């Protein structure tokens, strides 16, 4: 039997994500990110489409590599302004029954003692529907505003290992099963002998005490991760239950899936229990022509400058100082810097280099980078999603949108029924907590 | 015309607060603090009663002064376990239209750059219904779990002054009015020239950048504070718009109201714009006899040990090592340590000392300390609330409960109508944001 296709929707609590310029598309009310109504409606739409989860990306700074300034980000509403996404979750949870919620939270700034309480609280209030996307923040602008200097890349991950160790002790070891007795005869709410100090003393953290929360339905939220560097993959293999992959080719996806599963096996884990979700951007039409027309209409709003400002953050190179020729040369080098190899793959996949200048590039960045675009009828998109899944071993998709609400509305009403008819997307939710729903 | 009586409900995201032992009262389902349904129902009850706000107290540690151990707190469910209260707010906001939400958050641990985003987000999502109760955490157990040592009392407040300065700059100065233009013709989401780096460099914080959120309806949440020490009152007079007073005698209340208003005047503030809310615990009956019977029934469940463990935290004295006689001697000294002078006042008010042993004391601590109890028919309670208000100059009350849901249900259905009939409690909410509703 074909593997079930799991679906997550990608959102952020800000006006514009990777879809640079598309906030201008008619009817795209991006400013609704500030309204509870928007989030509640979205959650209900996704639950109607039997999505597994809403995946909240997040950053704690502003993109300021391009032109050495945050002006482009501010003007374009690109990833900025950005609210704390965690606060949409309780309202969405109250309006749904099954949908999971994956919250991105950095291991670099909030103290694990406080983060553990926050996650336990959300897992309680959602009745066990929480996931945590663990990120090591990599923006200098964030570190500066915390009055800190960034640790170097690998040390961030070393510290991350210890951070997770603290969280694990708080969530899994501090409270025994059965510690909360609520014994009204003997007047015992919780048995002090079954609640334990974790006594953590490490290189980065000292947390002697007990977890502030009684055990939540899942104790540990489902752990997501998205790192693709060598150190990031090692971290994922050790800790993550779900991996979010940035869009890329079949070959690269297949490599990453196998690589991380092999590493996980070395940690004694069952490699099949790690789920992979590449990001895709669907553009849907009732006919192929309609879909292409829709893509054309959307691209008319894309912003080259916005796209380059994104690319500048992803690569660390200020593209305002780079000519078209230099950009192509740079990309052709296929360096191993973050994002760069994807670009290289992207160029190859799209027939080489010369015909792809900055303008064309930016149009494709209007859809969140490279390789994520899926254009066609519901059947064609369903075909593409099934094939990519079967060829690469991924377990489903993180679906991003071109325009707020509309993309998800269309995907749920048009593509999901096709995938359900083919037995790939669930018709009903499984019972139980998020981890059980995802892993079966 | 008599001043409007403002009403806030006091809650925490934990099983038991100051009402030690009362979780055992039949039907008191304290464990519902983990359920969204509980919070949504409560918010709707309070809005039916035209309450101004739900006031969320919070702590980030566990009480462990009594017997030098956290065992009593764990066994009694006293302030522990404790979830993050902020996450109940969005679900309650979605289910109500006017009710305000006051969130306690410490200035001692979370970085102001992150706290400012959290508060702006909640103010956006609640459409301007947020208040912030600013506390300087004072539990050693919290500091230890953050790997820190506590600053001394006055330095905590000095740091608090700078903390608020950072928040003020982020909320009020970083984004000009009109910075968010959403100009679809010129493709400008926000005007970079109207968004400003705050450039904060102080003794405790360096925050060079811009606020992550566009201006929320109130920008700055309504500022609450509860400090009663000399330094705490100075802080309140400088910053707070609302003051939460722990229950105490008329004379002491009157003194504090006048003292803080005078200090505020020295900061150039209008002293009448600072609102005071003492805490009260109502016990309501249809007849006086019924009310006294209800009090008797409740007290049968009170926990002397739980009360002493609270008292130990408030005074810093481990009362497990103190005999009844020593306790009375200690209290009679009326020392200026936190809480001690209230105890002294309490003893005087209740006719002296000898007849009040630890057992009797603990029963009154079953209602959150001293002076807060109001027992009687709805009319009698209304009388007491009106008189205390008129004699002391306070602006309303923070109402605590004996048993979860039931106390507020009774207060809303029985006492509020009497107070509305007398023209003291509002019949309809004013329009506008929380600050406008509170201050008119």
UniProtKB/TrEMBL annotation, chains A, B:
InterPro entries according to UniProt: Diverse_substr_monoxygenases, Luciferase-like_dom, Luciferase-like_sf, NTA_MOA
Gene3D superfamilies, sorted: Luciferase-like domain
Pfam family, one: Bac_luciferase
Keywords on record: Flavoprotein, FMN, Monooxygenase, Oxidoreductase
Domain Luciferase-like: 33-395
Cross-referenced PANTHER family: ALKANESULFONATE MONOOXYGENASE-RELATED, C2H2 FINGER DOMAIN TRANSCRIPTION FACTOR (EUROFUNG)-RELATED
Protein name: LLM class flavin-dependent oxidoreductase
Species this protein is from: Paenibacillus baimaensis
Source species taxonomy: Bacteria, Bacillati, Bacillota, Bacilli, Bacillales
């Amino acid at each position: 039997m074909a593997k079930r296709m799991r679906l997550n929707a990608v959102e952020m609590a800000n006006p514009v994500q990777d879809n640079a310029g598309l906030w201008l598309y008619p009817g795209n009310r991006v400013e609704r990110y500030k309204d509870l109504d928007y989030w509640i409606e979205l959650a209900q739409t996704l639950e109607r489409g039997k999505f597994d989860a809403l995946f909240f990306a997040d950053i704690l700074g502003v993109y300021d590599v391009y032109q050495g300034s945050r002006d482009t980000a501010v003007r374009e509403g690109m990833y900025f302004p950005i609210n704390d996404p965690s606060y949409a979750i309780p309202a969405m949870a109250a309006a749904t029954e099954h949908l999971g919620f994956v919250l991105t939270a950095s291991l670099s700034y909030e103290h694990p003692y406080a983060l553990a309480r926050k996650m336990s609280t959300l897992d309680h209030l959602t009745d066990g529907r929480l996931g945590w996307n663990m990120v090591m923040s990599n923006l200098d602008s964030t570190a500066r505003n915390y009055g800190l200097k960034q640790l170097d890349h690998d040390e961030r991950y070393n510290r991350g290992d210890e951070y997770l160790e603290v969280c694990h002790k708080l969530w899994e070891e501090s409270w025994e099963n059965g510690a909360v007795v609520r014994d009204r005869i003997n007047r015992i709410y919780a048995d002090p002998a079954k609640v334990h100090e974790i006594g953590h003393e490490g290189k980065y953290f000292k947390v002697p005490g007990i977890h502030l929360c009684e055990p939540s339905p899942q104790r540990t939220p489902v752990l997501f991760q998205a790192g693709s560097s060598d150190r990031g993959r090692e971290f994922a293999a050790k800790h993550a239950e779900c991996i979010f992959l940035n869009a890329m080719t079949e070959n690269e996806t297949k490599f990453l899936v196998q690589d991380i599963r092999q590493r996980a096996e070395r940690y004694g884990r069952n490699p099949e229990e790690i789920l992979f979700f590449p990001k895709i951007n669907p553009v849907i039409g009732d006919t192929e022509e309609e879909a292409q027309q829709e893509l054309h209409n959307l691209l008319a709003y894309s912003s080259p400058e916005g796209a380059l400002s994104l690319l500048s953050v992803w690569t660390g190179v200020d593209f305002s100082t780079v000519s078209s020729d230099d950009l192509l040369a740079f990309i052709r080098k296929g360096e191993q810097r973050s994002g760069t190899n994807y670009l290289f793959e992207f160029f190859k996949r799209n027939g080489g280099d010369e015909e792809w200048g900055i303008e064309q590039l930016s149009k494709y960045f209007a859809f969140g980078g490279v390789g994520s675009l899926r254009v066609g009828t519901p059947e064609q998109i369903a075909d593409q999603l099934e094939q990519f899944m079967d060829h690469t071993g991924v377990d489903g998709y993180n679906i991003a949108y071109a325009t707020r609400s509309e993309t998800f509305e269309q995907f749920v009403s048009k593509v999901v029924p096709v995938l359900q008819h083919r037995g790939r997307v669930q018709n009903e939710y499984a019972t139980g907590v998020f981890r059980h729903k995802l892993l079966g």
